[in-house]
């Protein structure tokens, strides 16, 4: 029993180290400019993990700033909320408001490290210096009414160096430093020097806005992947993370693009589900954006009201098979782990996991929707909790769909 749980812990640790980030973007304030407090962030992070049809996968939070809204340089309360909910963090340094604000961001970053230590730093998957600052200085943005000054490439390079210096020798040393911008900013060779200074590239891409092309929902998947490919081409071999994408649930049309929940559901099904299945780091835009405000268009997959009580506006389950548990292969092949290789190979549990991973169409989702009656036998990853730690276990089970309801029986 002890050996089994040790193996489970090893497998879980490895899978969580290797698993892609999946989450949402979290602003620092509500639609009425009211600052989000600890309880608000905590509620949002919990609600993301409870989203029906997603199997608790949305456990990562991208922030835009380290500063509590309305203060000079107080640590944002999202940090404590993330610690208390075990939420992964893609940190943000706001870089479109000049050098002095970047100093305040760095002060808050250092204070968070000093105050919370590893409970904080262990949750951090990366730090983005800036968000769409290069987009803001383009003629397109200014033509769209952008008044925020953004940042020049040379300024961003300077900010990136300052953040690198600030985390050297701290618990965040070695965490990847990146930048978030629109795909068009990376596709612009004038910004190559910024890319050269990064560890990861965060890309924002919204086919909805691409009125230069046919931007109807039927073309959205192709337009998104075209933008992702152009970003990868410009990325100088660095990993590309999808830091924002989504389709609006309401608002005026843009060219051929219509903002409604049905199209947002199609976008989720095509783009979000395919990114999840490929293991691409993804922060969707967004969970809820209408609280105490009326954004036009609105991208929130949940309507206004009590975030945990209201239902998503479209089905979030991904019907196609998710990625198999291939993380087990590197585990057994890693030279560092070779001393336990034999033990692992002789473990019936691991043997079963490897065999399971070879079976077709594994599902990661114990909940399901169905619109026709059927029975099938499938391999499913279930999340489970033991002693406060999350494990995944795998079971062969029968999916039974009857009258639109779906259940799993072993
Ligand atoms: C390309 O990038 C440069 C530097 O960021 C910017 O000044 C310029 O406006 C961009 N060009 C276009 C067409 O967006
Ligand atoms: C979306 O595009 C990607 C990349 O070309 C492709 O792999 C995927 O099958 C497409 N999905 C849909 C639903 O068309």
Automatic annotation (TrEMBL):
GO molecular function terms listed in the Swiss-Prot or TrEMBL record: glucan endo-1,3-beta-D-glucosidase activity
Compartment(s) of residence: Cell envelope
Reactions catalysed, as given in the entry: Hydrolysis of (1->3)-beta-D-glucosidic linkages in (1->3)-beta-D-glucans
Primary subcellular site in the record, as a coarse category: other
Domain of life from the UniProt record: Eukaryota
EC number: 3.2.1.39
Membrane-spanning parts: 336-355
Position of the signal peptide: 1-19
GO biological process: cell wall organization
Keywords for this protein: Hydrolase, Membrane, Signal, Transmembrane, Transmembrane helix
Record has Hydrolase as a keyword: yes
GO cellular component, as recorded: cell surface; extracellular region; fungal-type cell wall
Gene3D superfamilies per UniProt: Glycosidases
Family, similarity comment: Belongs to the glycosyl hydrolase 17 family.
Name of the protein in its database record: glucan endo-1,3-beta-D-glucosidase
Taxonomic lineage from the root: Eukaryota, Fungi, Dikarya, Ascomycota, Pezizomycotina
